[in-house]
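Can't paste images in this forum, so I'm doing it all in text. The chain is below; anyone willing to post the predicted structure tokens underneath?
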Amino acid sequence: MSATDSHGPRIGVALRRGDTVSPLELFFDLVFVLAITQCTALMAHEGAWRGIAHGLVVLGLLWWSWVGYAWLTSVVDPDEGAVRLVLFAAMAALLVSSLCVPAAFGNLGLTFAIAYGVVRAAHIALFVLASRDDRGLRHSVIGLATSTAIAIAILVVGTFAHGDARLAIWTAALVFDMAGPLFIDTSGWRLVPGHFAERHGLIIIVALGESIVSIGVGAEAGVDGGVIVAAVLGIAVAAALWWAYFDVAAPAAAQRLAEVEPVKLRNELARDAFSYLHLPMVAGIILFALGMKTALAHVGAALPWETAAALAGGPALYVVAHVVFKRRALGTFSLQRVIAAVALLACVPFVHRLAALTAVAIVALLLWGLLAFETIRLAEARRTVRDGELYRR
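Text version of the structure:
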């Protein structure tokens, strides 16, 4: 009898067997879709740089809660034992947190923090059950529980402050929470590489979906020729962001994660390349979505500084995160992507002065220029990676 067979029924959870993302995990991610949408709404509602800062901090908090469940469901089977019911409860708490996001820096701050704390507590409780007969995992879980509890306490304390003081305290809570795994023994964690990589790939698609939704929201005022062209260009940018990740980087990183044999090194790679570096990717997509929402509503007008920075700076952040991601996961350095990111940032002052339609066209042109260069210049390397992925399948 295997450890999974003997331990699963007794402790109320069953360890994961396969490496395919389950329907329940996809269902769980649907709530995160709302969370992302609410972060964009928070940025758009508050406006200016402060609104963007508020949205990014809340996005970071929600992202870190999602990351915890990605690690959890790479250890336990979400469809067996008590896990399914606890995940449903966590979904409800995450839904409440998401509903509070637009007023998280207002009168719903405490409600947001309490609901968020429930999400994190459910995650820790399931990890405690899963680690009952695994001393290494239990040691790591205790460390995670400690850092999580302190971070949640800081978050709650922050709700009694207002304005910039709350932003500063919540930022400190986020930094402390995300820094916790850097001081925890990584050899105790367990994960299924294929599942873990796929889960993060799917969340990138979820974020890209928000950029599509923003196009629809921005076009609510009416559809004319300019809106149609801007919408098509927005889809072109979203497609370029998809291509940049899924064409080569994602399958190559997944292969690399599966090939690393020492548990400690594999877990550190998963932590750095996926848990940490996918956050700026998601943030970059959300910033672009914010820019598109305004651009579609005013295609013939110049964009405010903060919206121009989001429209061009979001994709720049996404591309830079890719550079660091590929460096950490594959040991390669993409000079052409650094140049593209610099070009996108350099366009912000011009985007601020141009019509929104022209601004979206410039962003699309730069991204597709990057992809065209990589497709032609790196054709052989691309073919090698993709052939290797197909062979493994």
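Residues 1-11 have pLDDT under 50 and may be disordered. The two ends are 29 Å apart (CA to CA).
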